[in-house]
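Researcher: Going back to the complex we discussed earlier. I've cleaned up the inputs and rechecked each line, so this should be the final set. Can you rerun the prediction on the complete assembly and write out the structure?
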Amino acid sequence: MEAILTRHLDQDNPQNLAAYQATGGYRSLNTAFDLKPEKIIETVEAANLRGRGGAGFSCGMKWRLRGADAPSPRYLVCNLDESEPGTFKDRYLLYGAPHAIIESVIVSAFALQAERAFIFVRGEYAKGGHRLIQAIREAETAGLLGRNLGGSGFDLHIDVHLSGGRYICGEETAQINAIEGKRPNPRPKIPRPSTHGLWGQPTTTNNVETLVNVPHILMNGAEWFRRLGINGGCGTKLFCISGKVKHPGVFELPCGTPARELIYKHAGGLDNDERTLLGFLPGGASTPFLLPQHLDVPMDFDPVAEAGSRLGTGSLIILDDTTCPIETVLNLTRFFARESCGFCTPCRDGLPYLVQILNAIATGNGSADDLALLDELCSTIATQSFCAFAPGAVMPLVSSLKDFHEHYEQHIITQRCPFDASRKEAV
Ligand SMILES: Cc1cc2nc3c(=O)[nH]c(=O)nc-3n(C[C@H](O)[C@H](O)[C@H](O)COP(=O)(O)O)c2cc1C
Ligand code: SF4
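Model: Rerun complete. Updated structure for the full complex:
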């Protein structure tokens, strides 16, 4: 398979502009400048490039809906916050291919006619953020960035914003507040950032992996990109695989690769061949579980949704039959409770309540009424909270109540975690 997103990652000195250009880097700028912005947007839409930040929305459609007549100044935000447990793909691009990020931001900003772009980098990736700043300076010195860049008549300034470090800063409206120097609470859905974003101006946010595809689409065409995928998917995808597998890591593979191939071929299978698969989260910490019967589902947005979950960030977290699903869900819910921005009551107070109940069940102190209470609380939290954080936070828990119902019952009836014994046997 042709690697696109990871093709520069083995380069000796990824910060070096000359080395990047020697392997074809920045060539897409001329291709982009020869095209009209509308033509670029049309090509990206025809390629069916879907957002890699979680929701899978069509990138080309998002750009087209923003409208060519949007008033200046217009902003592009490249989202490299990546703070969700189990998702660790964007850091590969940051540390391994900073010039590929800059090139993709330039051509995307040109398509959107955005005069200023921000790359929002997770705080813990500070070293990568500083290297990215160095690479931006290098590109500016070479005339690839700044006023009349590459002689195109187009001006672009790129800033790197290092996050103060909260998960909610990945949500696009909270991120806009963070860039403006405000407390990063999410904003109301209306007015949309596409018309009233940064400092009230038109703003488009995309995940970094989404954007890094754009230069390749411009150089090779929409049809080429579509054909890179399999089983109906388009392009390639950076899949993160973690949990109970032999070789956890990031794998660039065709969009639509079945889960079975990801887990058993590329990640080497379960770390102990004696064990069996219990289930997996297909798209990161805020997606519903899939089960062994879903192993042949193509890992692409629509098939995973049809199977009852979400492709999310394409990050598979694997549980084997020695992993307690309740402890796993408790661990994730603890994370979400800690990361709630605190702005609305159902999320701020509801998530710690879930942690309390789950903890009681996991430690053998649960009661028969707890399952109905968990169900009811999740429904209230998901529907009554202000932003998409809360519905995502309860997704693994809600699906576990259905998929692992007997495990919950066992914990409650026996007043202990049955996995303690099986874990001891497995050692
Ligand atoms: C709580 C929360 C956290 C998010 N974190 C990220 C993140 O770290 N990176 C990201 O690209 N998108 C994240 N998103 C999605 C963004 O709000 C936005 O939809 C995305 O950056 C758009 O890019 P895309 O269309 O290219 O996927 C998050 C959403 C929510 C609700
Ligand atoms: S749902 Fe949670 S993260 Fe979102 S605004 Fe409410 S408290 Fe903040």
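Model: Worth noting: The mean pLDDT is 95.
Researcher: Good, that matches what I expected from the previous run.
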